[in-house]
Amino acid sequence: MSGHSKWSKVKHQKAGTDAVKSAAFTRISRGITIAVREGGGITDPEKNYHLRLAIEKAREVNMPKDTIDRAIVRASGGDAGSFERLTYEGFGPGGSAFIIEAQTDNRARTVSQIKYVLEKNKASLSTPGSVKYLFQTKMQLDPSVEAKVRELVSELENLEDITSVQTNV
Fold first, then answer.
1. pLDDT at residue 133 greater than cutoff 90
2. Which of 77, 97, 98, 114 is the most buried (most CB within 10 A)?
3. What letter would DSSP give residue 99?
């Protein structure tokens, strides 16, 4: 019966789901760390609203309690590195605008990844404040440009450090 191992089939599916879970857990752990730090080091979810929201998000994706607790301890102990929130603005296909928010421990890596994805999709970073005013109104684009914008947003959201991407389309 060689070549008919059940594990040989399961391992490929498991690898895919494990990669998705790992990325989600990493993103949420960073959110917990930032919530504790921005909350003045308060590790009690009853007293730290942002921490409570981060823990609720963790429970939504079935993150183990032990992993949540480790993230809280790491944030309060100061050995978590220095995560920071960053906001980048850019212009994409057809004059579309983007606000890209990230949580990262390495600003250079994150901006490099963002620039790569933007340039690959014929978009670019802009100076701070050059895009935010555009979010009062929505643009209407032809379907081909709108598809390009959706593809760009999808690629940006798949980057590990990105927490949200907003566009005026």
1. no
2. 98
3. E
> Could you give the CA distance from residue 95 to residue 84 in angstroms, rounded to a whole number?
29
What pTM value is reported for the model?
Answer: 0.53
What lies within 8 Å, CB to CB, of 29 at 6+ separation is: 67, 71
The CATH classification number of 84-167 equals 3.30.70.980
Q: What does the alpha-carbon distance between residue 58 and residue 25 come to, in Å, rounded to a whole number?
A: 7
The gap from C-alpha 101 to its chain's centroid, in whole angstroms, comes to 8
Angle at 166 between CA 21 and CA 112, to 5 degrees: 70
Q: Tell me, what's the pLDDT at 79?
A: 53
Please classify residue 16 by burial: count the beta carbons closer than 10 Å to its beta carbon, then call 0-12 exposed, 13-18 middle and 19+ buried. exposed
On whether the CB atoms of residues 64 and 21 are closer than 8 A, the answer is: no
Angstrom distance (rounded) from CA 61 to CA 58: 6
* CATH 3.90.550.10 is the classification of domain 8-77: no
Q: How do residues 7-34 score in pLDDT, each as one tens digit?
A: 878 888 888 888 889 889 988 998 898 8
